[in-house]
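Hi Y.,

Following your request, here is the sequence exactly as I used it, all 325 residues.
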Amino acid sequence: MSKIKTIGILTSGGDAPGMNAAIRAVTRAGIYNGFEIKAVYRGYEGLITGDIKPFTTENVSGIIGQGGTILKTARSKGFTTKEGRQQAYDNLVSQGIDALVVIGGNGSLTGAMLFAQEFDYCCIGLPGTIDNDLYGTDSTIGYDTTMNTIVECVDRIRDTAQSHERIFFVEVMGRDAGFLAQNSAIASGAEAAIIPEDSTNVDQLARFMERGIRKSKRSCIVIVSESPKCGAMYYADRVRNEFPDYDVRVSILGHLQRGGRPSARDRILASSTGVGAIEAIIQGQRNIMVGVRNNEVVYVPLSEAIRSDKPFDKKLIKVLDELSI
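Below is the corresponding structure, written out as tokens. Let me know if you'd prefer a different format.
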């Protein structure tokens, strides 16, 4: 049995539906196995300021279906400095916290890895991000809910697109990964998805215009993965300039993608990985992310989870191409 007696838990980075379910799972599984649980509010910034409180089962009662995170989340410039991380470590020691469970995405788990290496500290990561871009897990907490939200929005947008014979470019989140865009395009019956994984020398917009809408359709939906340079506005402006006969609109879904009650899949994933985090601590695991592959809980080194490119199934591009004629 590990010498660890008290476990801290925090959420960091962008919120994701299912984070509360993960908080609940870590808290209850931890208490069940004899650990004391302490909650850190406002992410790594809360570690620096000492915003830490003991948690009981009552603190997490009724939160499994709530979106967002009851622990709040914040970006922390201070944690990027050695002085900030030292203050965070000192607060953990003063609070008697022997291990830390971090729920977040790539940046959050990068911080956990650095902290674990710097102070030889036990850090366990849970994949809490809507982007689904962490290596070693089939899905991340929040991804399924967000994809369903996007599909619901696109279904509504299509009504207007068809009524007015418009081309709609719908911009979705995903950072540098196209999982949300590609899969929501298939699920919503969109005509195309413009994603970073399909970026080649071929002009994706020109290929789409020639293949599809110019031949048989005057209304369509194109899902675009967010990008600071080539987002939905960029492609809409190109169509306006190159194909002025078409009526073009842009819908940027933005932060509404993050909110809402988590789906059953996300609640189950959060619960499974939350329990898995406690089991990992009992086993003496350190510096790992808890994921799920083929319905089995797995432990992935944080260095692999954040640095390896998650495989993208290129067959999905062909699926969408064939179904959008």
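The domain at 6-142+262-307 is CATH 3.40.50.450 (Rossmann fold).

Thanks again,
Q.
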